[in-house]
Amino acid sequence: MDELNLEERFSYWFKEFDRCIKCYGCRDICPMCFCKTCTLEESDLINTGDVPPENPMFHLTRAVHMAGRCIDCGLCNEACPVGIPLRTLYKKVADIIDQEFDYRTGFTEDAKSPLNILGGAL
Ligand code: SF4
Ligand code: SF4
């Protein structure tokens, strides 16, 4: 992934996201997805009824919500019926959070995610 330029990366992910059947398996299995209401089901943000879901909005919305939260368990990757490499995506997001905020989920017992503000949806 690191060898691709930005345009190639975008094209790679765009093609991957286009295979999504919007089963919500990645979200449902995730131990760190615990909001009572899910942004991915907000019709103001994501068009409902579209399969594949709005590309790349659906997946980037989830990726942003997993920033500073994902524990890299890999369950979303295993659950995805069409084999979208979600773990890779969330690992890249975690790397950005580490670089920008010096924060890795679960590495320090008392530390809170720099994006803790997203927890306001809880
Ligand atoms: S790898 Fe991250 S996003 Fe995927 S299920 Fe585990 S905690 Fe959730
Ligand atoms: S598990 Fe795969 S197919 Fe299902 S919503 Fe997630 S990315 Fe899409």
Provide a descriptive summary of the structure in words.
This protein is an all-alpha fold. The protein is 39% helix and 0% strand. The chain is built from five helices and no strands. The protein has helices spanning 6-17, 25-29, 57-66, 75-79, 86-101. The radius of gyration is 14 Å and the shape is globular. The model has no long low-confidence stretch (mean pLDDT 90).
Averaging pLDDT over every residue, what do you get?
90
Structural classification: mainly alpha
Distance between the first and last residues' Cα: 33 Å
The string of secondary-structure elements, in order, is HHHHH
Our count of helices gives: 5
Helix content: 25-40%
Low-pLDDT regions: none
Number of strands: 0
Shape: globular
| Backbone CA Rg | 14 Å
Q: How large is the share of residues in beta strands?
A: under 5%
Notable traits:
122 residues; mainly alpha; 39% helix; 0% strand; binds iron/sulfur cluster
What is the topological layout?
Blueprint: H1 6-17, H2 25-29, H3 57-66, H4 75-79, H5 86-101
The structure holds iron/sulfur cluster (2 copies).
Structure in a nutshell:
About 40% of the residues lie in helices and about 0% in strands.
